[in-house]
Amino acid sequence: MSVQTVRERLVEQAKKRLSPNLPRLQMFGIVLITALSGFLVSFTLYRGLGLSHMGYRYPLSMLVAYGVFLFCVWQWIKYQRRKTDAYREKATKGGSSGGDWSFDMPRWGGSGGSTGSDFKPGGGSFGGGGAGGSWASGSSGISQSEAFASVEALPKTSGSGWFSGKGGSGGIGGIDLDDGAALLIIVLIVGAILAAFSYIIWAAPGILAEVFVDGVLASTLARGIREEETGHWLWTVFRKTWWILTLLLVVLGWGGLALQEAFPQAHTLAQVLLMLE
To answer: N or C: at which end does the chain have fewer Cβ atoms within 10 angstroms?
Structure first.
C-alpha cells in the first residue's frame, strides 16, 4: 500500500473522528484570534511606531497575523495530542480498542502485504512552531471622533495621483468616478479579507483532518516509512493557504499604495471614507 493511499485513508478517518467536535467552529475561533491580532499589529504600527503608510502597514500586519494563525494551529495540534493520549491511556487501562479514536493502520514491514490494525493515536514527541491565513484590516484603531477631528479641517477631495480626473466627470449621489474608484478599492480590500476568512472556515474539516494526520499521527506513520514522506503539519497548512496569503498580500499592498497616493492625508480606510463624504 502506497504512502499516499495510507495518508488519504487516514485523512478520511480523521474527518469522521473530528466532525462531532465542530471543526468549522474551532476554525472560526482560530480565524477570530488571527483577525484580532492583525488589528492589534496595525494599531501598534500606526499609533505606537508611527508607520502610517497603508501600503506598507497592511501587508506587514497581515504577515504577522498569518504567523499567529500558524501558532494557533500548533496549539490546536498540541491539544489534540493531549486528548488522544488520554484516550489511549483510558483504552489501555480498560482493555478496549480506543472507541471512536481508533484508526485503521497498515502493518509495515514483513514479506507479505499490509494488513489493517486498530491504532489508538498518541505516542511520539511533538515539536514544531509557527511564524497563515490570512488578515489585514482597514482600520488602525482610530476612533470615529478622532477620525472626524483629523480630517474635518481638510478640503474635500476626489483624490489625486491615480484617481485624478483629466476632465469633468459625472456623479451619482455626490460620488464622482474618481471617488468611485477609491470606493471600489476599499470594497475589494474588505471583500478579499471576508472571502479569505469564509473559505478557511468552510474548508476547516479537510484542513484540520490533514493537520491531524501530519501533526498527531505522523510519529506512528514514520515507523514503517521515512519520516520526510509523511509530511509536516506546517507544510500542510501552508500548502492549503499559500494562495490566500499571496492574494491578500497583493490586494492589500496594491490597494494600500493606491489609496495612500490618492489620499496622502489619510492613513486608514476609515479616514479615506470620511474624505469621500
So the answer is: C
Question: Where would I find the beta strands (DSSP E) of the chain?
Answer: 103-106, 116-119, 171-172, 175-176
Q: Which of 130, 121, 129 is nearest to 216 (CA)?
A: 121
C-alpha cell at 43: 494599531
For residue 137, which amino acid is it? S
CA distance 182 to 166: 16
The 3-state DSSP composition of the chain as helix, strand, coil percent (nearest 5) reads 65, 5, 30
Q: What is the pLDDT of residues 98-136, one digit of tens each?
A: 444 556 555 444 444 444 444 444 433 334 443 344 333
229: Cα within 13 Å, side-chain hemisphere: 13
Helical packing angle, 144-151 and 269-276, nearest 10°: 60
CA distance 216 to 176: 56
CA max distance for the chain? 83
Which residues pair with residue 105 across a beta bridge? 117
The CA distance from 115 to 13, in Å, is: 17
Q: Cell triple for residue 248?
A: 491578500
Residues 21/27/32/37 CA torsion (nearest 10 deg): 120
pLDDT digits (tens, 9 = 90+) for 21-77: 999 999 999 999 999 999 999 999 999 999 999 999 999 999 999 999 999 999 999
| Residue 33 CB burial class (10 angstroms; 0-12, 13-18, ≥19) | middle
Phi and psi angles of residue 193, each rounded to the nearest 5 degrees, phi first: -65, -45
By residue count, the chain amounts to 277
